[in-house]
Structure formats: C-alpha cells, structure tokens
Amino acid sequence: AGARWKEASPMLSVEHVTKTYGKFTALEDISLTFTPGVYGLLAPNGAGKTTLIKMLTTLLFPTKGQILWEGEDIRALGAEYRGLLGYLPQQFGYYPSYTPRQFLRYAAALQCIPKREADGRIDHLLETVGLGDAADKKMKKFSGGMLQRVGIAVAMLNDPKLLILDEPSLGLAPNIVDDILEVAKTMVKNDGISVLLVEQDITKALAAADRGYVIENGRVALEGTAAELSANEHVKKAYLGI
Ligand code: ATP
Questions:
Q1: Pairing between β-strand 211-216 and β-strand 37-42 as defined by DSSP bridges
Q2: To the nearest whole number, what is the mean pLDDT of the chain?
Q3: What is the pTM of this model?
Q4: Whose CA is nearest to atom 13 of ligand 1?
Q5: What is the rounded radius of gyration, in angstroms, for the C-alpha atoms of the chain?
Q6: Minimal-distance CA residue to ligand 1 atom 12
Q7: For a pLDDT cut of 70, what percent of the chain falls above it?
Q8: Are the beta carbons of 204 and 184 closer than 8 angstroms?
C-alpha cells in the first residue's frame, strides 16, 4: 500500500464529462483526477453535486465524456467497480433498535460477505471509527456524530478503494467532524485509498483535504492543493468573506 501511495497513479478519472437533462446542462466538460489521498470537492447549492455523485456511483451515466477506474470505463466494470466503492449518502437509513454491530452484520449479509470474515472486519471497523465502546448499544440513543460513524463503518465494510462521503459533516459539531476526518486520513495512510469529501462549505471541504476542486455552475472553477485553494482570491472573496 505504501508504494502505491508514493507513485500516486490516477485511480479514478473523470474525463470531459457533460451531463444534460433534456435541454438543461447540469455539468459541462468536467475533468477530475483522483489518486490516493483526501480530496475536497466544494460544490455550492445548484452546482451539480448530486448529479456528479450519482455518476461516480453509477446511478447515472454521462451524456458526454467518460469516467475511468484505473483506465477502464466504470460503466463497463459495473459490479466490479461498485464492489470497490464505499459511499456514505447524505441520509443513511438505519434501524434504531439495532446496535452498530447488529446493523453492520446485517449490512454485511446484504453484501454477501461471509459471516466469519465480516465479524472480524466489523470489530476492526468499530474500533477504527471510535465506536468500540458503543458497539453493542442500541442506536436509538446515539448522537448525530455517532450515527455518522456507523454510516462510515457501513460504507467501509467492503474495504473500499474509493470512499465517497456526501456532506459527512452535516449537522455535526466541529470537533466531531475533525474526528471523522481523522478516520478518513488514517485509511488513506494505511490503505492508500482515495477519499472524496463532497461539501457545500469550503472550510469543511478543505479541512482534511490534500487537494480540492471547486465546482460552480456545473463547471470546474478551480483546482489545487488545499493551501492553494484557501489562498485563492476568488475563494477568499466568494466563500470565506475576506
Ligand atoms: P444538491 O441539491 O444536492 O446541492 P445540486 O443542486 O448541486 O445538488 P443537482 O441536484 O445535480 O445539483 O442539480 C444540478 C442542476 O440540475 C439543478 O439546477 C437541477 O435543477 C437540475 N436537475 C437535476 N436533476 C434533474 C432532472 N432529473 N431533470 C432536470 N433537471 C435536473
């Protein structure tokens, strides 16, 4: 995993992707490259965030252009691609009367992960997301931050190479967001995966990111390292109010 991290070959590349709904163009000529690391995607309201996430998770396909995983079209890879994808949706459904361990076992069964393999991984994941002590407590009493950690653990059950988090910080206190981002960074370091943090708030998008993209009106407005983006005049004016 270490070698892969260093060589940083593109894992996912979005190449000149346009998506239209009838006559309306939601995304136009978007190109994005993701190597191992944490990426912040800033997509303010109406920028085309949902459309982009749906394409990255194969719920929608580009009108023009292509999305490649290690050089192969994700549409052609199909289930193979979905098998290496972890996705935390904005609202994730859970059963309040389940404990995290029960819920993860259930999610693993749905993914046809053999029970013995799943149990070991679930123990490890619960520790990773900081729920070791709450693993056997019913989720109905959980805070938003604890539920979000359960969601991330579910998204990581299949040992993803690409983890897409849709506004993971929504409604969470900053210190809890920091904890969750720390989990993402650890996975990047240990497993060399790509984490995409899609946020509507620039500070949240760049907090843990190595690199980032700013998407405005369906186009890539800016890209760069987190430091470059934070220092960018347009970003300062439009998003940071300075
Ligand atoms: P979010 O609301 O999650 O922040 P978003 O508004 O940034 O997402 P999308 O939901 O992708 O992004 O929408 C981008 C644009 O495309 C919006 O103007 C939306 O009205 C339009 N749009 C989205 N889906 C459709 C559709 N099925 N048919 C027509 N227009 C659509």
A1: parallel
A2: 91
A3: 0.91
A4: 48
A5: 18
A6: 48
A7: 97
A8: no
Measured from the Cα of 54, ligand 1's closest atom is 11
With vertex at residue 230, the alpha carbon angle to CA 224 and CA 234, rounded to the nearest 5 degrees, is: 90
At 125-152, the pLDDT tens digits run 998 888 999 999 999 999 988 998 899 8
Write b or e for each residue in 114-138: b if 16 or more Cβ atoms lie within 10 A of its Cβ, otherwise e. Answer: eeeebeebbeebbebbbbeebbeee
Q: Which residue has its alpha carbon closest to ligand 1 atom 9?
A: 48
CA 172 to chain centre: 16
Asked if 35 contacts 194 with a C-beta cutoff of 8 angstroms, the reply is yes
What is the distance in A from the centroid of ligand 1 to the CA of 20? 10
**In angstroms, rounded to a whole number, what is the distance separating the alpha carbons of residues 236 and 87?**
30
* Ligand 1 mean position, distance from CA 62 (Å): 14
Contact residues of ligand 1, CB 6 A cut-off: 21, 24, 26, 43, 45-51
User: At CA 184, angle to CA 71 and CA 161, rounded to 5?
Assistant: 25
Alpha-carbon 51 to chain mean position: 14
Residue type (1 letter), 169: S
